[in-house]
Amino acid sequence: MKIETLKTIVGLQSLPEDVMGRIRLIKFADSNHVLGQMAYHAVNTESKALSDIFENAKLRASHDHTMLTFEMNRVERAFSGLQTPIVVLKGGAYVATGGRAGLGRRVSDLDILVQHSDLSVVEQQLSKFGWMPDAETDNEYDQQYYRQHMHELPPLRHRTRGTVIDVHHALLPKTARFRIDAELMFTQALSISGANLKVFSPIDQFIHSAVHAYADGALDTPARTLVEQYFLYSDLKTEDMDALIQRAKEVGAAMPVALALWLIGHVFELLAAEQHSKQLKGGWRYYLLKHAILVKLEAGWAAAFGKAYLYVRSHYLRMPLYLLLPHLIRKAIQWRPGSNVPTDLPFPQ
Amino acid sequence: MHVKIRDLESADINSALKKGTFTLKLGPFEHLIKGPSRYLLPHLKGIYRDCDAALHPIDVTEITLRLKAPNFIRSFVRPQISPDPGFQVPAVPLPASMAPLGFEMGLNLSVALKTCRFVTVHAGVVAKDGAAIVMSAASGGGKSTLSAALHSKGYALFSDEFALIDLQTAEVKSYPRPISLKQNSIPIARELLGADRISPVISGTPKGDIAYARVNQESLCSPVTSASVKLILFPNFQTGAQSMARRLNPAEAIMRLVAASTNYSLLGEPAYQAMVSIVKGARTFEITYGTTEQSVRLVEELVGEVSS
């Protein structure tokens, strides 16, 4: 991926003049699931052929948004009259609050965050209203594994609508190396106008996105992540931009946030973001990480090294080895070729 | 610039197919094609010979199709191809010699799953004097044979596979891809349209014997690219049946069109509005018949009723 590509997608740079370049760009945006965002934000797009493609992408995204809005409404209904605060995360929040990060964004499921103490009520209530565990995870081991070690329940699918909801009770796995104060973010969440659901404040939305990208996964969808963070950041008020690092330190997310700021600053030439990222002085591992991310993004000859580093790091961050190894071995034994449903083995006591 | 495929040099088409710059223009779409020219070229030069194409894309294309080997070994050992429309599709790899089938299936998948600016309904469409007949039937229901028969009787062929309903105007768009013929319909189409308009038969495909019929030049070159729907038919071919037409009420017709649409649930309300408006402007029938002649006579009677 060229950095120019991402700048074109968010509308900071005009589309290439040559047709093959444009075709490659559309293909890139489509296969990285950011064509919808590009459709809303790209500049100098006067051609009829281009507007047809963008129209398709916008309609597709608007279908996702209709689905999401409907699902949020169903969740609200399932909890009406109960005292269980629910925070809508990620895509759901962007769409509900109407920010630029939501415009044209593809969404496949609804992510919600609830308090750990509410978990059993939430589960009961969702099950009563038709959400069931998938066959893939509906076994004792997976159910226990998620509950003991993870930050979310196994995905729940609605019986008739087929839509998926992810119920989180924390922002990172319980076993993760980073400790994020989700409680603090939760208590300061804002109500969505006209709904009983909540969303994180704009600053916390950015922090959560950064945590998700740099304290959890291996940056598997870099284009999507960077486009999302670009819009989340540039929609912040100036005073919020200044408060971001302080808040990140408060909730224990200084490193991921600094990394996110540095990268969007670098890719989209956002001077303020780059400046703010410098407030964090990282050690050698931080610099290694930056380089791993850059070479993975540029997809050149060294990309495989970056990828491998990020992959190993993501597992290192999620879980200590003495938990990870038995889990992987068990998964290998349970695996059945050609089937999504694992062999059911009893959970070790 | 677009040129008729018959006027392009085979060598140029070959290299454009290899590079993936070959652009086919048909109806409202431009299609960018990459694939094995050895098997595709005869198909393009035969069945698509009167269509517009270009060796280099003039602009971005809505539909992009690559026919490629499912893995490295299958490029050489008993070569296979599978269609890649740019998103994950559940397609079985085919022997490379069945590339024309892979090509047609790939284009159908692209239109069905990728375009949202039209409501796509699985149906044959023909038109005369600005009035369109939409024929929606399950596979094997006789929709292609009926389309071919009406086409041979002077109707313009709009599409053999999809009714593309414009979301704003609720008119159907002309998208005259070749008529796809299966098994028993091949000899019938040969008789109706003339043997020179039918492609060589591809036998032993997952769908049985397959051939394609070339659409006539008037349909391809007509300046009329859309028409309002006057008749919606749900054909039902039954060997030995008496010909019969049963009027459907609007609700029943809409429900059947919804079931035949590939993107209705994706589009939601605008698709519903478009369907309501085409059903309001048309008469809707379920027709049953035992022979092609019966079906043509029946349709012509219904057309007569509508226009009187």
Task: Write a structural description.
The complex is a heterodimer of chains A (349) and B (308). Helix content of chain A is 57%, strand content 6%. The termini of chain A are far apart. Chain A is globular, with a radius of gyration of 21 Å. The longest helix of chain A has 31 residues, at 48-78. Chain A contains 16 helices and 7 strands. In chain B, 33% of the residues lie in helices and 30% in strands. Chain B is built from 10 helices and 19 strands. In chain B, the strands form 3 sheets. In chain B, strands 8, 9, 10, 11, 12, 13, 17, 18 and 19 form a 9-stranded mixed beta sheet that branches. Chain B has a 7-stranded mixed beta sheet with strand order 1-4-2-3-5-6-7. In chain B, strand 12 (162-166) and strand 13 form a beta hairpin. Chain B is globular, with a radius of gyration of 19 Å. Classes of the chains: A alpha+beta (349), B alpha+beta (308). The interface between A and B is medium-sized, with 20 and 21 residues.
Produce the secondary structure layout.
The complex is a heterodimer of chains A (349) and B (308).
Chain A: H1 3-9, H2 19-31, H3 35-41, H4 48-78, E1 87-88, H5 90-97, E2 109-113, H6 119-128, E3 131-133, H7 140-149, E4 156-158, E5 164-168, H8 182-187, E6 190-191, E7 198-199, H9 202-214, H10 222-234, H11 238-251, H12 254-268, H13 271-277, H14 284-298, H15 303-318, H16 321-334
Parallel strand pairs in A: 2-5
Antiparallel strand pairs in A: 1-2, 3-4, 4-5, 6-7
Helix pairs in contact in A: 3-4, 9-10, 9-11, 9-12, 10-12, 11-12, 11-13, 12-13, 14-15
Chain B: E1 3-4, H1 10-19, E2 22-26, E3 29-34, H2 37-46, E4 52-54, E5 63-68, E6 80-84, E7 94-95, H3 99-114, E8 118-122, E9 124-128, E10 131-135, H4 143-152, E11 156-159, E12 162-166, E13 172-173, E14 179-182, H5 185-193, E15 202-205, E16 208-213, H6 217-221, E17 226-237, E18 244-247, H7 250-260, H8 264-267, H9 269-280, E19 283-289, H10 292-307
Parallel strand pairs in B: 3-5, 10-17, 17-19
Antiparallel strand pairs in B: 1-4, 2-3, 2-4, 5-6, 6-7, 8-12, 9-10, 9-11, 12-13, 13-17, 14-16, 15-16, 18-19
